[in-house]
Every structure is written in C-alpha cells, then in structure tokens.
Amino acid sequence: MGLSPPVKWGLTPPMLNLPGTRSPMLMPRESQVTIKTTEEQALMRRSGRLTADVLDLIAPHVQAGVTTGELDKICHDHIVGRQDAIPAPLDYKGFPKSICTSINHVVCHGIPGEKRLKSGDIVNVDVTVIKDGFHGDSSRMFPVGKVSVQAERLCRIAHESMWEGIRVVRPGARLGDIGHAIQRFVEAQGYSVVREFCGHGIGRGFHEDPQVLHYGEPGTGLVLEPGMTFTIEPMVNAGRRNVKVLPDGWTVVTKDHSLSAQWEHTVLVTEDGVEVLTLGAVDRVSGSTP
Q: How many domains are contained in the chain?
C-alpha cells in the first residue's frame, strides 16, 4: 500500500494516493473478483442480517457516559454468545477489538477503549460478522445526546451519499459510476470524500476484490455482474479530505481535525439491480430506502 504495516483494512494495497504509489484506477483487478453462487448468496444474506442485528442491538447503548470499550464488549458477547459467530476485526492483522468505534474527527478504525462518550459526540460503529465462513460488514453513525446542526447535517449527507452510490448498482454499471455518484453528491454539499480508504469485495474473505472507490469518473472501471458482493462505505469530511494515521497504526483522523462521518452497507448485484444485505430491522420491515 505504500506504507509500513500494519496494513489498514478497508482497502486492498496499494491504495494510498501518496507520491510514488500506483494509482488503483490503473490496476487490473477483474480476474480476482468472485461471483457468488446461489448458495453462497444465501449465506451472505445470513451474515449480513446478523451484522445488522448487532448494530440494532448496540443503538440504545450509545449514550453519554458509556465507554467505547463497553460497547465493544456488548457487541462481542452478542456475536459470540448469541449468534454463535465470529467478530471479524478481532485479531485481524493485529487489531485488538471486535468492532471499530470512530468518534468525531476519527475517520475510521478507531480502537474501543476507556474513552467515554459525551453529549454532542458523533460516533461510527463498524461491525463485521463471520457466520459459516462468510462475512457481513456494515457501519452506522450514532449521535450522542444533542449534537450540533453541523454534525447532524454531516451525518445525514454521509448517509445519503452511501445511498447515492447504492442506487447506481446494477448489472452493466461500472465501479466508476458508483464513485462518481458519491463524489458529485458530497462535493455539491461542500464536503469532501476521503480517498485513501475504500469499499471492497467481501465473501469468504474479509477484503476481496474489487476495490470500490468513493470518487471517480463515470463509465470507467470494472463492469458489475450478478453475483458480485461488495461494500459501499464513503467517508465524508466536513473539512478537507486529507487524513493521517495515528501512532497506534490503526486510528485514522482528519488532518485538519474536522468532523468525519461514514455509513456502510454490504450489497449484492442481482439480475435486475441491487440487494442490500445489511439492512436493519426497521428498514427491512418498511421495505423503504432513502
């Protein structure tokens, strides 16, 4: 990826757009993309549902005064004890916890610990569940108490940008169409899209091909086919798009200390469009999407 290990997940190296690194847009990746069989798609649906269930479970616990370590324990105990599944982040390339918790200016891969949430915070909780060998991956933003108008708007725009990308997914569309839809929407709102991290293929592997960039040109990149599964997970900054990795080797923050927000779904390309595999209970019941 152009940086020293530990390798950051959420991308397939080399990904960082730094001097001397190769542009991911120039990398031939098609031959490594897996098409899921009908049976594998069913297993992906199950893993996606379990992942969404964990996020539904944790929602009422995201309150002022709770530590991110306590949120991690609740999720871990549910995944292992109730779902009889595996929290994919735990020990992944040395990551020490079962979920990621990214607060305020933390873009992604925040490590749960002793930090207590306070009213006004916004926090992303990122969950990946492995069940019967297949992964489901999703994240949501949660407001803690009363948040500022600016923070609320950022979270809303990040959510809408994810759906802008999802709506593009169908057989015959290209990966560049997804990135372009997200980038165009986000930048029109006065925000920026993080480019160092991206969505990814998913299935038996936590991170498979293809890379799913959240910026790009329409009509470019891999042509989508039924049976492909991947994540769409734009990271949207209130300020500039530039980020840096903290000394722990994992936590990614905005360089200008501006707020950042992210939402993520795992999707399946179907014969006539797209199926979102990680919808929460409310969205599954209503059958509605933004």
A: 1
Euclidean distance between CA atoms 241 and 259, whole angstroms: 11
Is the residue at 29 inside a domain?
A: yes
Alpha helices in the chain (DSSP H): 38-58, 68-77, 149-166, 175-188, 281-286
Q: Which regions of the chain are under pLDDT 50? A: 1-30
Q: Do residues 270 and 238 lie in contact, with contact meaning Cβ atoms separated by under 8 Å?
A: no
Q: How many whole angstroms separate alpha carbon 266 and alpha carbon 284?
A: 14
The tokens describing 80, both together, are 């292992």
CA 214 vs CA 25, 149, 225: distances in Å: 12, 25, 19
Boundaries of domain holding 257: 6-279
pLDDT for 17: 35
Whether 284 is covered by a domain: the verdict is no
In a domain, 241, yes or no: yes
The dihedrals phi and psi of 232, each to the nearest 5 degrees, come to -120, 120
Q: What is the DSSP string of 24-58?
A: GGGS--GGGPPPPPHHHHHHHHHHHHHHHHHHHHH
**CATH number of 45's domain:** 3.90.230.10
Q: What pTM was estimated for this model as a whole?
A: 0.90
In a domain, 287, yes or no: no
